[in-house]
Amino acid sequence: MFINGHAGQLRFDDIHELVFSPDGQRLAYVGERGEGESKTARVVLDGKEGPVVGAPSDLTFSPSSVHLAYLAFAQGQTYSKHLLLDHKLVKPWAGENLFFSADWQHLAYRQYDTPGPDFYLDERRFGPHDGYNSTMALSPAGDRLAYVMESKSDSSSQQVYVNGSAIAPKSSMYITELDFSPQGRLYWRQREDKKVNVYRDGALQASWDSVLSAEPAVSFSPQGSHCLYAACRGNEYLVVIDGKPEASDAISLREHSGFVFDNEREYHYFDVRKDGLYLVCANVGDTLAPDESVCVRKARQIYSHPE
User: Fold this and answer.
1) 274-280 long-range contacts, Cβ below 8 Å, gap at least 24?
2) Mean pLDDT (the chain, rounded)
3) Residue 202 CB coordination number (10 Å)
4) Which of 139, 254, 291, 306 has its CA 20 to 30 A from that of 44?
5) Nearest-angstrom CA–CA distance, 222 and 262
6) Nearest CA to 238 among 226, 217, 253?
7) 303: part of which helix (H) or strand (E)?
């Protein structure tokens, strides 16, 4: 394992499931040694090996980056995984796809059975559903679990559910990327009739020729009062705030980047232009003077002290 070009002290025959914590300061991964029946697996956290477990998976950091959860078989077993928190057994498990709330107090997961998947939020069960699941999301407060179900008999029929109840009619078009705002409002995108529609809690917010695939796909201000993404009408991508296009020039976001809020009003992004790459500092509402802008002040500081 190499980190920033430096080899670590631990040696394994195979390493996989590398996961960084949300703050980027911690690293967890699965390390395996040996082959066949002699193979052993451990979860490594912060360079320290955990106990030997079977087929560890679903490594998930808490939003605060303090805790790590994962699923694994007890040593010598292959029939039922357990949930471990910071390497300690929490409970026997039979699910997959772990989702924790922002305060680490609520846990959601999916469990496949006949005729289809069940969904759990803490000890509440939603289902079973007769179909297939592709996407899940848990609200920051941990009180709303959203997921998309696809019909077994008609793969083009999809529907969004929240806590077991459908919140929108069935759609014959592909539903993508469920996103909860900090306030718990649910957004998703859906292609219909050569348009991409953006929905909020089941209601149509806006319709576009396309919506730019960015990371993140949708950006929210810290308190959730504003929603931001890039969408196309005609041949130009525009900044869209709360479902309405900004009166600004067309943009071309840098690949694998999106919008970042600096506070509840200010945001920035990287715009690719013919003569180079530009950092754009902007805000919702009235224009700020340069000295009032958090983004501008930070940019000036970095420029004057590049190291």
Assistant:
1) 280/251
2) 84
3) 13
4) 139
5) 8
6) 253
7) helix 294-304
Q: Which amino acid appears at position 146 of this protein?
A: A
CA distance 8 to 14: 14
Q: Which residues pair with 72 in a beta bridge?
A: 82
Q: Where are the domains of the chain?
A: 210-307
Q: Is 215 left (phi over 0), alpha (psi -120 to 50) or beta?
A: beta
Q: Burial letters for 88-124: b for 16+ Cβ neighbours within 10 Å, e otherwise?
A: eeeeebbbebbbbbbeeebbbbbbeeeebbbbbbeee
Peptide bond into 128 cis (omega under 30): yes
* Size of the chain, expressed as the number of residues it contains: 307
- For 190-229, the pLDDT digits (tens) are 887 788 889 999 899 999 988 877 767 789 999 999 999 9
Output DSSP code: residue 36: G
Q: How far is CA 121 from CA 145, 168, 276, in A?
A: 7, 21, 47
Tell the burial category of 252 from Cβ atoms under 10 Å away from its Cβ (0-12, 13-18, 19+). middle
Q: Which residues contact 293 (CB under 8 A, 6 or more apart)?
A: 266, 281, 283
CA-CA distance, 278 to 286, in Å (whole number)?
A: 22
What is the pTM assigned to this prediction? 0.72
Within 8 A by CB and 6+ apart from 180, the residues are 137, 138, 139, 140, 144, 146, 186, 187
